[in-house]
């Protein structure tokens, strides 16, 4: 592994058993993502893009191959250590924001910090700062139901970034947004990438977003292609 790689996978494969039928989703996938690099993964629906993202994030277990995050092979550490590594090194953004409805935006964003043991007052202060960075200074004390779709997704980005991850894994982050809000989120991702040197691996059907990445890779028939 190059020290410049924040995340990589080698000869990754994933299959499922469906009765007597074996379904191969991924086959011999290799990917290296360097610091501050922006990578888009495209492909038809059902090609396994979300599965690949889950494997890269240690949220699912590969059938074969290895995933290395920050120099650590995640298959060789305990689930407790994997959870800590995810919290320290990765941020996650999904098509649906997954904000907790009973908490305000700032409380939602502070949650990953509190889970790692940060004092609540310090976590709220850091969350407030990140929400200001994503343009939600005046909305941080609103609950998700009181935010627009674009605001909720920006809050989800703030939550992913509050731990200062080395890499953000995003699964269709603009899939539920109109063109205006999608474009604003595109700009935000580029700005955050350049300001914080955060890497992005983005699964998307959004061609405009994909073309703003450093690399666009296609997942087809279980294989990742340039």
Architecture overview:
There is one protein chain. Helix 6 (179-196) links the parallel strand 7 and strand 8. The radius of gyration is 17 Å and the shape is globular. Helix 3 crosses helix 4 and helix 3 (105-115) packs parallel to helix 5 (149-161). The chain has helices at residues 49-56, 79-89, 105-115, 120-133, 149-161, 179-196, 207-210, and strands spanning 5-18, 21-34, 38-42, 64-69, 72-73, 90-93, 167-171, 199-203, 215-220, 223-225. 35% of the residues lie in helices and 28% in strands. The longest helix has 18 residues, at 179-196. The chain has one domain (5-225): 3-Layer(aba) Sandwich (Rossmann fold), CATH 3.40.50.300. The protein has a six-stranded mixed β-sheet, sandwiched between helices. Strands 2-1-4-5 form a four-stranded antiparallel β-sheet, with helices on one face. By secondary structure, the protein is of the alpha/beta class.
The strand count comes to 10
- Characterize the biggest β-sheet: 6 strands, mixed
**The CATH top-level class label:** Alpha Beta
In N-to-C order, the SSE pattern is: EEEHEEHEHHHEHEHEE
Please tally the helical runs, counting DSSP H or I stretches of 4 or more residues. 7
Q: What is the gyration radius calculated from CA atoms?
A: 17 Å
Number of domains: 1
């Amino acid at each position: 592994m190059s020290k410049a790689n924040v995340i990589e996978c080698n000869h990754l494969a994933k299959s499922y058993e469906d009765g007597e039928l074996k379904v191969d989703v991924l086959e011999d996938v290799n990917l290296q993502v360097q610091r501050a690099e922006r990578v888009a993964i495209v492909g038809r629906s059902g090609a396994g893009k979300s599965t690949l993202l889950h494997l890269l994030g240690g949220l699912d277990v590969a059938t074969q191959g290895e995933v290395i995050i920050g120099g650590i092979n995640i298959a060789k550490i305990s689930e407790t250590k994997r959870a800590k590594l995810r919290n320290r090194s990765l941020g996650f953004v999904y098509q649906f924001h997954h904000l907790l409805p009973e908490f305000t935006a700032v409380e939602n964003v502070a949650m990953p910090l509190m889970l790692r043991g940060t004092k609540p007052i310090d976590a709220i202060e850091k969350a407030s700062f990140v929400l200001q960075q994503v343009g939600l200074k005046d909305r941080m004390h609103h609950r998700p139901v009181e935010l627009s779709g674009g605001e909720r997704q920006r809050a989800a980005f703030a939550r992913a970034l509050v731990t200062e991850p080395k890499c953000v894994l995003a699964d269709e982050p603009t899939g539920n947004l109109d063109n205006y809000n999608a474009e604003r989120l595109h700009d935000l991702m580029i700005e955050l990438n350049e300001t914080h040197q955060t890497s992005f691996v983005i699964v998307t059907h959004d061609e405009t977003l994909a073309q703003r990445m450093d690399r666009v890779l296609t997942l087809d028939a279980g294989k990742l292609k340039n």
